[in-house]
Model the fold of this input.
Amino acid sequence: MSGNLYIRFWGVRGSIATPGKDTVQYGGNASCVEVRCGNKVIILDAGTGIRELDNKLLKEKPRHINILFSHFHYDHIEGFPFYKI
Done:
């Protein structure tokens, strides 16, 4: 793989997403991490943070995306039904 490594946390909360004014600084969405290396896109877990990542990806229209689940507890999959790509 060539290219720069880019990592963004779209959600880091546990079982219950807590978006709101008290969590703006650190975020309130459940687990979702975007990892990029060159033109490769990997999504780690699909908590509620995947909704905002999805909006970004819909604009970019990448050709190939991999989604990896660390495990299937609800807070790691609850955003997946809202994933449009």
Observations:
- The longest helix spans residues 50-60.
- The mean pLDDT is 90.
- The longest strand covers residues 5-11.
- The chain has one domain: 5-82.
